[in-house]
């Protein structure tokens, strides 16, 4: 029970699995065993606790095969240059490798801000299939040069991003003269090599993209960009000087 805080520290399990969660009230968290794969199960009807990752806090599972992250919470905040990082690292030569997923399930709010990120990458010099990022929450807030992204820098295809939220708020929020006022906050799937980029799937009631934030599937190499699919009741694009983008870059 109780809330979980990672403040200035980190959890590292290269090619392993990191799972965070807790209960705010009485209840039992189960352990599921499937061969060598372990996962937690949370009871229904019991409020979950909160998780905060702050001040250069991190969770890293990037390696050669299968590293994954799962977070089951009420509210999640990732702030002040903190991050979640999965994927396939430089030097992996097996095309059969598959990065694990980053799965986040929150019953309340997920806040990602102040130059923080959630990444699932295939790095230069690596082979294999990238992992996905899956997020389910009531409200997702991404602002202050923060981003959720999958990307490939080599042969392998990057994973997809799937977000199911009642409300999504993507806000630029930081003005930087070196960036000419441009903020990179948002949701991204990209390829910078011959591997294909993943798809970006959004299901929400309200999507707000504001002040330089982006929803983008793009290619900067020979690979094919992914698709953007948005199912929403209301979409608001707000900004100045055409600094708001909702696009597929081919």
How would you summarize the topology of this molecule?
Layout: E1 4-7, E2 10-12, E3 17-21, E4 30-34, E5 37-41, E6 51-54, E7 58-60, E8 68-73, E9 76-79, E10 83-88, E11 102-106, E12 109-113, E13 117-122, E14 133-143, E15 147-152, E16 161-171, E17 186-191, E18 200-210, E19 214-219, E20 228-238, E21 245-249
How would you explain this protein's 3D organization?
Residues 177-182 and 241-250 have low confidence and may be disordered. A hairpin with a 2-residue loop joins β4 (30-34) and β5. The chain is globular. 0% of the residues lie in helices and 51% in strands. By secondary structure, it is mainly beta.
Which word captures the global form?
A: globular
Mean pLDDT: 85
- Helix % is under 10%
H-E order: EEEEEEEEEEEEEEEEEEEEE
> Helical stretch count?
0
Please mark out the parts with pLDDT under 50 across 5 or more consecutive residues, or reply none.
Answer: 177-182, 241-250
List keywords for this structure.
single chain, 250 residues, mainly beta, eleven-stranded parallel sheet, eight-stranded parallel sheet, globular, disordered C terminus
Structure summary:
By secondary structure, the chain is an all-beta fold. It has strands at 4-7, 10-12, 17-21, 30-34, 37-41, 51-54, 58-60, 68-73, 76-79, 83-88, 102-106, 109-113, 117-122, 133-143, 147-152, 161-171, 186-191, 200-210, 214-219, 228-238, 245-249.
